[in-house]
Amino acid sequence: MFKSVANNNDKKIRKTFHNKNSNAIPNLSTNSNPNKNTSNKRKSKILLVLGLLAVGSSLFSISYQKSPPQAFLEEVDIMSKEESLPKNLNIIFVLGGPGVGKGTQCDKIVKDYGFVHLSAGDLLRAEQSRPNSEYGELIKNYIKEGLIVPQEVTIQLLKNAILENYNKSHQLNFLIDGFPRKMDQAITFEKTVHPCKFVLFFDCSEKVMLERLLKRSKTSGRDDDNMESIKKRFKTFVETSMPVIQYFEQQYKVVKINCEKSVEEVYKDVQNAIKDHE
Ligand SMILES: Nc1ncnc2c1ncn2[C@@H]1O[C@H](COP(=O)(O)OP(=O)(O)OP(=O)(O)O)[C@@H](O)[C@H]1O
Ligand SMILES: O=c1ccn([C@@H]2O[C@H](COP(=O)(O)O)[C@@H](O)[C@H]2O)c(=O)[nH]1
């Protein structure tokens, strides 16, 4: 189908050319042109036009740099507070495939160590259900398709939650669960919010994660706990989120934890990792 459209277009273009240049077969060789004067005049005209275009684009580029369009981040009005974030935050990223057990382990860490648990997925779902949210529909679609919501939205939600907790109770210790899941998020968050101290990477086979998710689907009420969305989430994890883990591995920031064990056994490894980073 695409081929036939392309062929039609191609024919149309060729036809137009032929009409405008009745006898014309385009000739790119200057030597074969009998009228050199006319050819030279044409060349000078073309050079003049190219020169004007170059000057124009330089002027445009200078003015563009002086007043670039506002970054999307500034336009997101989920809650744009002017307050700056504290510089001494203690941030642990909690990463791993869908259903590996991130939330389960975070709940246990919160109880024992008093961290604040911020799940990027939970924040997005809350924003999705917020009445009149500008991003509700967008978030819903991305989640159903297992795709990563544009970073501006997620980072703003995380910033707001960090600030809220800091303002309320001077909390500095945060578990950021299920984020960053894409390279742009990792870089922007560490640059504009705070670098992470280390990364807990929960590892598990897809088979086990699928079993856990299907079991959870009976009670979770989540739009994406179904076979179709789960497959898409696995794909996104492998293709988009694993490179983030590799990026932090190169910085020796990753503690990999095998999650094909009981919740308590996994938690022992988690505690050791926290101890090693005190
Ligand atoms: N070690 C474990 N052994 C058996 N079941 C587990 C284990 N850890 C978690 N589960 C169960 O697996 C399901 C998924 O766990 P959890 O919600 O913590 O995963 P998650 O990584 O946060 O998922 P998601 O990425 O979808 O948010 C839950 O029903 C949980 O009770
Ligand atoms: O940084 C993020 C985190 C999550 N999402 C989207 O939310 C769903 C659900 O996330 P869970 O961590 O499983 O609760 C995820 O599949 C993404 O669609 C995101 O876009 N960005």
Please outline the helices and strands:
Elements: H1 2-20, H2 36-66, H3 72-75, E1 90-96, H4 102-113, E2 116-119, H5 120-129, H6 136-144, H7 151-169, E3 173-177, H8 183-192, E4 198-203, H9 206-220, H10 227-249, E5 254-258, H11 263-276
Parallel strand pairs: 1-3, 1-4, 2-3, 4-5
Helix pairs in contact: 4-11, 5-6, 5-7
The structure holds adenosine-5'-triphosphate and ligand LLZGTKA7.
Could you walk me through the main structural features you see in this protein, from its secondary elements to its overall organization?
The protein has 278 residues and is of the alpha/beta class. It has a domain at 90-276: Rossmann fold (3-Layer(aba) Sandwich), CATH 3.40.50. The protein has 11 helices and 5 strands, in the order H-H-H-E-H-E-H-H-H-E-H-E-H-H-E-H. Strands 2-3-1-4-5 form a 5-stranded parallel beta sheet, with helices on both faces. The radius of gyration is 28 Å and the shape is globular. Residues 1-34 and 58-82 have low confidence and may be disordered. It binds adenosine-5'-triphosphate and the ligand O=c1ccn([C@@H]2O[C@H](COP(=O)(O)O)[C@@H](O)[C@H]2O)c(=O)[nH]1. A ribonucleoside 5'-phosphate binds at residues 125, 147-149, 178-181, 185, 222, 233. Residues 119-149 are annotated as: NMPbind.
Brief synopsis:
The chain is built from eleven helices and five strands. The protein has helices at residues 2-20, 36-66, 72-75, 102-113, 120-129, 136-144, 151-169, 183-192, 206-220, 227-249, 263-276, and strands spanning 90-96, 116-119, 173-177, 198-203, 254-258. The structure holds adenosine-5'-triphosphate and the ligand O=c1ccn([C@@H]2O[C@H](COP(=O)(O)O)[C@@H](O)[C@H]2O)c(=O)[nH]1.
